[in-house]
Amino acid sequence: MTSLPASQAMLPADWRDLFALTKPRVMSLVVFTALCGLLAAPETIHPVLGFTAILCIALGAGAAGALNQWYEADVDAQMKRTRSRPLPAGRLDRQTALHFGVGLSALSVILMGLATNLLAAAILLASILFYVLVYTVWLKPRTAQNIVIGGAAGAFPPLIGWTAVTGDVSAMPVLLFAIIFLWTPPHFWALSLFVRTDYAKAGIPMLPVVSGLATTRRHVLLYTLPMVAAAVAPWPLGLAGSLYGWTSIVLNAIFLVLAVRTAMNRAEEPSGMKPEKQLFGFSILYLFILFAAVVADRWISL
């Protein structure tokens, strides 16, 4: 980690810059999957406590995002996709980002423990530490498997939402965790295929930078297969009903077709990577619909 150029003038900052540190687009997916885990749980929680639990998960995710940007400010400054963020653009200083991230982390974990239970608070703390220390500091700058292992960081929210209600961990939230964990590599590798020059310039060893396009495309397909298995599993295991089951089959069939098309693509330039872009775009929709189906299936069975 290096400092930004001393000659870079600090521009005026406002609340929008602090909000940008929380990675709000990423947070929206975190909040949604956490809410689905909470609503799909077999028990009920008081609406105020449920809202507080989701707020804590959002704050924890925002804290992790802020600490990630604090650590990677110099890397973000080298990438076209991230150089307009508050730190590389000079609208905030690193100390502010660090204090903001640590403060949000402490607030989210303590409030979760007080509002729900200690297990949910412990898993929330583990998710923040995993994202910041294991993924950001250790894995991302060192290995092309950063997304494979680091995917666990984004898989915690539905597990935390479920645990906030029940106080324990069972098979269904573990499967929800597994779905996101296995979804993360094909999702991010699809993105990295058409922005690989950004990663190469910043010295981040993403798979297409280290192993090339063909290998990355094959890995997209290979990691899609266990994801499909995990996503369909709740139905035959009796953990979800037919609404979820058929929704999952349709979504996974589309995902698998796009993954096959990606694996078969031979384009070298971003302009020829239509399958990869389609897969990346659909992968976000896939997760939203799949987790919405978890909740819908649970509520129609009541």
Write a compact overview of the structure shown.
74% of the residues lie in helices and 0% in strands.
Describe the structure.
The protein has 302 residues and is mainly α. The chain contains 13 helices and no strands. The chain has helices at residues 15-21, 24-40, 47-71, 73-76, 94-115, 118-139, 146-166, 171-194, 196-202, 207-211, 213-232, 242-264, 274-300. Mean pLDDT is 92; it is low at 1-9.
Task: Summarize the helices and strands and which ones pair or pack.
Layout: H1 15-21, H2 24-40, H3 47-71, H4 73-76, H5 94-115, H6 118-139, H7 146-166, H8 171-194, H9 196-202, H10 207-211, H11 213-232, H12 242-264, H13 274-300
Name some characteristics of this structure:
mainly alpha; membrane; heme biosynthesis; UbiA_prenyltransferase; Protohaem_IX_farnesylTrfase; EC 2.5.1.141; Tetracycline Repressor, domain 2
